[in-house]
Design goal:
It is a single chain. Helix content is about 50%, strand content about 15%. By secondary structure, it is α/β, with parallel strands linked by helices. The chain has a domain of about 190 residues: TIM Barrel (Alpha-Beta Barrel), CATH 3.20.20.220.
Length: about 300
């Protein structure tokens, strides 16, 4: 299983090998299990449908590692448009950005400026901006980015990863802000000195970080499909006497839809991560890596489409 996961994550970085999937995924339909579509309009329709079923959304344009100011500003313009369209259509949701989409790796000052501008735009519309956590080489500067923006705008949230060894100390640093924190497990290949390697270690770290989030004034966004960890979060929420609007569960589009609907019925605030765009294959491959059983579904779809 670990070999399959590592292979899929490696494959996500090899566009020359994944072009057949990119060419056929949307046409055959299997990619739409995890991706709302290639256009914003498609994503907004999915978001509206989720709202109608009692779920909030967090929207993300797929794509990473831009290489020019023009590309970074193009990403900014798309996110600004998402905010405006969500407000106009009264869609209950937020946006989440990848710092590398806004130039973090080659122009950190530009990234800070664009992120602040998005936070200001979101604030004017009564919305907020979440910041994704990407690979470990930029985790430190991502926390720096969040802190910089959060000093000026309270409507900013951050994702952290339970498999990174540094995350507990990052939360200690951010505790004075009492921010919204989305806790995920992590979906990149990282070395042992940086990240826990065994599932039991990652899960234990996740549980420990949940304890920190619920006990220290954060707004916990529990981003997992692991029912044992979700039960732990619900127990913590009850023990702390938190209202449903003081914490939430986040899940990926197309993953455990049955559980998403059950949580809504149980009165839990449920938010679905809705992605769209033409650069969807790396994200899609990482989702397969998290659940390799879905590989058979993809292979069957490809064979049918030949």
């Amino acid at each position: 299983m670990a070999i399959t996961r590592d292979f899929l994550i490696w494959l996500s970085t090899k566009p020359s090998l994944t072009r057949p999937i990119a060419r056929t995924g949307m046409r055959l339909g299997f990619a739409r299990r995890f991706i709302a579509g290639e256009t914003l309009e498609e994503a907004l329709r999915v978001a509206a449908d989720l709202n109608a079923r009692g779920m909030l959304v967090v929207m993300n344009q797929l794509g990473e590692h831009v290489h020019s100011r023009e590309e970074a500003e193009g990403s900014y313009a798309t996110y600004e448009r998402i905010l405006r369209e969500m407000a106009a259509r009264k869609i209950a949701g937020t946006i989440t950005i990848k710092p590398t989409q806004l130039g973090l790796e080659f122009a950190p000052d530009l990234c800070r400026d664009l992120t602040c501008r998005l936070a200001a735009q979101a604030q004017a519309l009564g919305n907020m901006v979440e910041i994704d956590m990407e690979h470990s080489a930029i985790s430190g500067v991502t926390v720096d980015l969040f802190e910089h923006v959060r000093n000026a705008y309270p409507n900013v949230a951050l994702a952290v990863q339970s498999y990174l060894r540094r995350t507990q100390s990052d939360l200690k640093r951010l505790e004075p802000f009492h921010p919204k924190i989305r806790l995920v497990k992590g979906a990149y290949n990282e070395p042992p000195e940086v990240a826990f390697q065994e599932k039991r270690e990652v899960d234990q770290s996740y549980a420990n970080l949940l304890d920190t989030l619920f006990a220290n004034g954060f707004f916990p966004a529990v981003a997992t499909h692991d029912e044992a960890l979700l039960d732990h979060a619900r127990t913590l929420a009850r023990e702390r006497g938190l209202r449903p609007d003081q914490w939430e569960v986040q899940m990926l589009l197309g993953v455990r839809r049955d559980l998403q609907e059950k949580l809504v019925r149980d009165g839990v605030q449920m938010r679905v991560y809705v992605t769209f765009g033409t650069e969807w294959v790396p994200y899609f491959m990482r989702r397969l890596a998290e659940r390799p059983a879905n590989v058979g579904f993809v292979v069957r779809s490809l064979l049918k489409g030949r």
